[in-house]
Design brief:
Blueprint lengths: L19 E8 L4 E8 L5 E2 L12 E9 L2 E9 L3 E3 L28 E6 L9 E7 L6 E11 L2 E13 L5 E8 L12 E5 L6 E3 L11 E11 L2 E7 L11 E5 L5 E4 L2 E4 L5 E8 L4 E8 L2 H5 L10 E5 L9 E6 L7 E7 L2 E2 L3 E3 L6 E7 L2 E10 L2 E2 L6 E3 L8 E6 L5 E7 L8 E6 L11 E6 L7 E10 L4 E9 L7 E4 L3 E3 L4 E6 L7 E5 L7 E3 L9 E5 L5 E10 L5 E11 L2 E4 L4 E4 L4 E8 L12 E6 L11 E4 L3 E11 L11 E11 L12 E4 L4 E2 L7 E5 L14 E2 L5 E9 L5 E11 L9 E2 L19 E8 L5 E5 L9 E2 L2 E2 L3 E10 L5 E10 L2
Parallel strand pairs: 37-43, 45-50, 51-56, 57-63
Antiparallel strand pairs: 1-2, 2-18, 3-8, 4-5, 5-6, 6-7, 7-12, 8-9, 9-10, 10-11, 11-14, 12-13, 14-15, 16-17, 16-19, 19-20, 21-22, 22-26, 23-24, 23-25, 23-27, 27-28, 27-29, 30-31, 31-33, 32-34, 34-35, 36-38, 38-41, 39-40, 39-42, 42-43, 44-46, 46-48, 47-49, 49-50, 52-54, 53-55, 55-56, 58-59, ...
């Protein structure tokens, strides 16, 4: 157990302090380890001041400090005990002569300063001036330390002081560790502690610390707190910030005995003793005290080391259950104890417990195994070690049997677990070896759903407890009673009316019988069981019809289980079809004739059956021994094709034949010539005469009224749509036809004509200004304006024009503007803007 006792430094740390000496006591069985450290201490930076009566260069504060309401991020340090914010005096001389109080002092460099205290210091005779910034925003501080600096004219006298300013609050503190009076009387023995603003109009001084009071001080401190436009001052406990690197010295506080130097010291008190840790700083010491009570007073009162007088154990009650226990005896009652033990060679987590009046501690929840050792501690003080102690588990006994009932859709097996002992903590698990889920029933029934073939199964019975203890046995269950069906035949393909033999076989041990079904609508063939296992059967069969058939053999055993085997066989009665059968054609080119062998059900015979072909007669055709030939001729022709199987393959019996006859009547074709060349373009409202020849009868489309006669070879077309395709169909006396197309475009954009001048002088020539050539267009708007934009004429009648007058008054000669809008047959409007000249 570790006790951490934190004591403030002996002179008390002020509420604004950032550092302290922390002492920690770590008690052991027979001694204590004390550890001390300085937290938040100064890491000094030299100010650079080595000459008498001078200000330092500009020094960064490290944060923003508000002094009399003015923010400052930089400062200067005066060699005569001051911190200033008037950067204009950086590296300049500092006034040393004190002849008036702070409020009346007129020195310009002694404004905007903190005096801590202001006195005549002679740094060349000894001492240091340094500064540092410490802490975390927004609670940082900046400290200036004058360490053992000699006084002018009396250099054996010295001063140690520290000025601290604080971020956010604007507080300033002065901590004077040592100041004595200069006995030579130099500088009136004066020293001032206070603050003064930049204008020199407002100042605050610590009571009794202003000119002309003569004073000395040891371990005193003052705090200056902002209050509006001024500061208040109060006395506070002396608590300068020590150096972070301060050495630690240890002493017995009662006897003053020196114990050692460094951050740690070991002590072995016999009674409660107070120790002090001293952090040596700048000519002073920061102290922290700690009271240490001997470990024995804490651990066990008056008596010897902890001791185990005996040990008892209890085994787990169920195999695998962790409910065993070990009890150690002779433990001191009512103390905090740490029990340490190892189980099966593995150290276990420390058990924190306290013995009662019976002086025992029990370790419960133990599994079976060996506890290698056990002891306990009071704090760091160990007891004697006992052990090993072994905890045992109750044994398991396994027994079982099973029975089998065969079936066709699965074999039922009943399993019985006869293991002992029994109870809610014991679990039976049957694994059946067929990929199905295990069962936890004590007596389980299971159906093996794949009988006959994979009928030997490796099963497992596992007898276990809910705590992981188990025993198992592996055994074989044989439910094998296979049944299968198979057959072969003399041929898979025969010609019609040819017998074929089928040979059936099976694997079965239960006197099988056979049933044959050949799939051709004839009755099934039954062969009863012949009393022999794994029996065979032979059947000769001749199909009365041709086609593809599926022969199925069904084997049935005495249990009623069945197996089936099916395969196809082909009974060929060759039929032949031709691609062109008894047809009339208009023959413009050679025609292909193709023979297509098929079975009587009109199913095309598979391509892999080889055939030979023969066409007759041979006139007007090409090849006569292939499945395909070409015909060319006019008139009536009759052809016969004969097909024969040629190779005795398994699927192709040799010599099956078939024939087909077809009649072809061919006529001369018709071909249209002298067709009007298109495309043809005509203006809107125009016409074109179409022409074609080469046929006897003609029909034109479309029949939408744009043709004057759709049944002649040269009709006149008058379309109005922008684009029309005229199609002509020609036919001869045999009904043979041909067709052709002529595209016709209609130009809907006839140009409008607008004159540029007119002469309304009544001579009958060019007396009106009007738009001409409006054949298919519509006049939407016709407006004329004079030079001042006045509308002098307007109409939408294409037959009306402007006669050069406005409201019955003849207009002057000159140029007039017009706007004309016309609508065209294609649905678009055309706008014309321009000018016309009126000439008289």
């Amino acid at each position: 157990m570790k006790y951490i006792l934190l004591f403030l430094i002996s002179v008390f740390v002020s509420g604004s302090a950032f550092s302290q000496v922390t002492v920690v006591d770590t008690p052991h069985c027979l001694n204590h380890t004390l550890f001390a450290e300085v937290t938040g201490g100064i890491i000094p930076t030299a100010s650079g001041i080595t000459a008498d009566d001078g200000w330092s260069g500009v020094i960064p504060i490290g944060f923003t400090y508000n002094f009399y309401g003015v923010p400052n991020t930089q400062c200067i340090i005066g060699s005569n005990g001051c911190l200033g914010f008037n950067l204009a005096y950086a590296s300049a001389a500092q006034e040393w002569l004190i002849s008036a109080n702070l409020a009346s002092t007129t020195y310009l460099d002694m404004r905007n300063v903190i005096c801590g205290p202001w006195c005549d210091i002679y740094i060349p005779a000894g001492g240091t001036i340094d500064y540092s910034t410490q802490g975390v925003a927004p609670n940082r501080n900046f400290a200036v330390t004058f360490c053992g600096t000699a006084m002018y004219s009396c250099t054996t006298e010295w001063i140690t002081t520290q000025i601290i300013i604080y971020e956010s609050t604007g507080i300033a503190e002065v901590h004077i560790g040592h100041r004595t009076i200069c006995l030579t009387g130099w500088n009136s023995q004066a020293a001032i502690v206070g603050v003064k603003n930049a204008a020199g109009t407002v100042s605050t001084v610590a009571p009794g610390r202003d000119y002309p009071t003569v004073w000395a001080a040891t371990n005193e401190a003052w705090r200056f707190t902002p209050a509006g436009t001024t500061y208040t001052v109060s006395s506070i406990p002396y608590s300068p910030i020590p150096y972070a690197a301060s050495a630690i010295y240890w002493y017995d506080s009662t006897t003053g005995a020196y114990l050692g130097t460094g951050p740690t010291v070991s002590v072995s008190p016999t009674v409660t003793t107070t120790y002090v840790a001293c952090a040596l700083g700048c000519n002073d010491t920061v102290k922290s005290y700690i009271h240490v009570t001997p470990s024995w007073l804490v651990v066990g009162g008056i008596g010897g080391l902890p001791y185990i007088s005996g040990i008892t154990s209890a085994n787990p009650t169920v195999c695998g259950e962790c409910n065993g226990s070990i009890t150690i005896h002779g433990v001191r009652p009512f103390t905090q104890d740490s029990v340490i033990y190892s189980l099966n060679g593995v150290p276990q987590p420390v058990l924190l417990d306290s013995a009662g009046a019976d002086s025992t501690i029990t370790i419960s929840g133990l599994c079976a195994g060996t506890l290698d050792y056990i002891f306990y501690k009071i704090m760091d003080c160990p007891s004697n070690q006992v052990g090993p102690v072994t905890l045992t588990t109750p044994p398991l006994s396994l027994a079982m049997n099973y029975s089998i009932k065969l079936g066709c859709n699965g074999d039922l097996v009943t399993f019985n677990d006869l293991s002992a002992p029994t109870g809610t903590d014991y679990i039976t698990t049957w694994s059946f070896g067929d990929g199905t889920a295990a069962s936890n029933a004590v007596n389980a029934s299971h159906v093996f759903a794949n009988p006959g073939y994979t009928g030997v199964y490796t099963d497992t019975l596992t007898y276990s407890t809910s705590f992981g203890c188990s025993i198992d046995t592996v055994f074989t269950v044989n439910v094998q009673h296979p049944i299968s069906a198979n057959y072969t035949s003399d041929a898979q393909s025969v010609c019609l009316n040819t017998p074929n033999k089928f040979y059936g076989s099976t694997i079965n041990l239960n006197e099988p019988s056979y049933t044959w079904n050949f799939g051709d609508d004839r009755p099934v063939v039954n062969v009863p069981a012949n009393g022999a296992n794994n029996a065979t059967d032979t059947v000769e069969y001749e199909s009365p019809v041709a086609g593809f058939f599926t022969a199925t053999l069904t084997v049935t055993d005495t249990i009623g289980c069945q197996a089936k085997f099916s395969d196809t066989f082909n009974v060929i009665s060759i039929d032949i079809n031709t691609s062109v059968h008894d047809t009339s054609v208009c023959l413009a080119d050679s025609m292909t004739l193709r023979a297509l062998p098929a079975d009587p059900r009109k199913v095309v015979t598979p391509w892999y059956i080889p055939f030979s072909y023969s066409w007759s007669p041979t006139n007007n055709i090409g090849q006569t021994t292939t499945s395909t030939t070409n015909f060319m001729g006019l008139g009536t022709y009759v052809y016969t094709v004969t097909v024969t199987t040629t190779q005795p393959l398994v699927l192709n019996p040799f010599g099956c034949t078939a024939s087909d006859t077809e009649e072809i009547i061919s006529y001369p074709p018709v071909s249209l010539v002298n067709l009007t060349q298109g495309p043809v373009t005509i203006p809107f409202g125009g016409s074109v005469q179409l022409n074609v020849s080469g046929a006897v009868y003609y029909t034109w489309t479309p029949t939408n009224g744009t043709l004057d006669n759709p049944n002649i070879n040269d009709p006149v077309a008058t379309p109005t749509d922008p684009y029309t395709i005229y199609t002509v169909y020609g036919r001869n006396l045999y009904g043979c036809t041909d067709s052709a197309n002529i595209p016709v475009y209609v130009d809907l954009n006839t140009k409008d004509l607008i004159p540029t001048a007119f002469t309304p002088n009544g001579d009958g020539l060019n007396d009106l200004f009007r738009i001409t050539n409006l054949k298919y267009q519509k006049l939407v708007d016709f407006s004329v304006f004079n030079r001042w934009g006045i509308l002098v004429f307007h109409t939408n009648n294409p037959e009306v024009g402007w006669d050069g007058t406005y409201q019955g008054v003849a207009q002057d000669m000159g140029v007039y503007n017009y706007q004309i809008i016309t609508a065209h047959p294609d649905g678009t409007n055309q706008t014309y803007k321009g000018n016309v000249t009126l000439i008289r």
